[in-house]
Amino acid sequence: MKPLDPLTLERVARLIVDIDGPFERRGYQLTQLLQRAGWPQPAEYDGSPRIPWLSEILTSTDDVAAVSRLLCRVCDPLEYDDGLASADLVRQTLNTHLTAEGLTVTYVSGRPVLGQPGTDGHTTVFTVPDDLEARIRPLVSSEAFLQQLMERVTETQICEQHGAYGLTLIGIGSFAEALLLDVLTHRDPTLLQGFPMPNGKLVPPERTSFSLLLDTARSRGWIQMDAHDFMRIVRDYRNFVHLRQQQERGVTPDRDTVGMCWGPVLAVLNDLETSR
Questions:
Q1: Is 261 left (phi over 0), alpha (psi -120 to 50) or beta?
Q2: Which of 113, 158, 202, 264 could anchor a disulfide with 230, C-beta 3.0 to 4.6 Å?
Q3: Contact, 195 vs 212, CB < 8 A?
């Protein structure tokens, strides 16, 4: 995501504060929202007018990843007592402000994800975010591993650009699996001794399955259940590295399939960021 125009950010601030509206947030609630969105060093509300205060915070940062997380968090069903009913109303209003920026928030497996409007004006296109490297840098264990991950992303983009969609899906799954393994063992070094199975046995990290990585991230509360469930599709499509499995599923990958796989990956990334 590129930096948003200051006027767009001011409109976003008005929506978030929602003075006299059904979703009005007090000063302390704004601070709490920023914290839940993983805003870097969120400031304590100082008692000044809320909209200018929040607008200043949004416009003074060059951290587009933080802005992206906040846009998604505002539309997160977890933020509202009645869940999706209220969250979707906020999302629809937010998207009217994001139209001019060529962005839209939609739900993928129940999680809010930032994407680009499709050419038909109704669908959402998911692809590699411009700020992906900046977003995953705080999550991973080392700069060297970060560069390896980004090389894998570049490889998937090359495959997609040349119509090798099956290999693109394999690359997306490989990226997601490697990211999860590194983030989980970085957050909890005891997992380097083994990932616990339901029967109590430990599986060495180098032999841990994609499925067990997802289960572990979910059990620790680092990703939400919906994102966990839909990532299983990405896992299954990653297994198209075995042509027999692709034949059994009867899937002919295309550009839309690629976008549908990036969606759950971005939902998991959002969850990993906000649970950091």
A1: alpha
A2: 264
A3: yes
- 47 φ/ψ sector (left φ>0, alpha ψ -120 to 50, else beta): left
Q: What's the length of the chain?
A: 276
Q: Is the pTM of this model over 0.90?
A: no
Q: What is residue 114's three-state secondary structure?
A: strand
Contact yes or no for 235/173 (Cβ under 8 A) = yes
**Cβ atoms of 69 and 39 closer than 8 Å:** yes
**Residue 201 phi, psi (nearest 5):** -70, 155
CA pair distance 258, 19, nearest whole angstrom: 41
Kindly list the distances between the CA atom of residue 239 and the CA atoms of 155, 236, 251, in Å, as whole numbers in the listed order: 17, 5, 12
DSSP 23-52: T---HHHHHHHHHHTT-SSPPPP-SS-HHH
Phi–psi pair at 202, nearest 5 degrees? -105, 135
Contact between 204 and 194 (Cβ < 8 Å): yes
User: How does pLDDT run across 63-82, given as a tens digit for each residue?
Assistant: 888 898 899 999 999 999 99
For helices 64-74 and 255-274, what crossing angle results, to 10°? 90
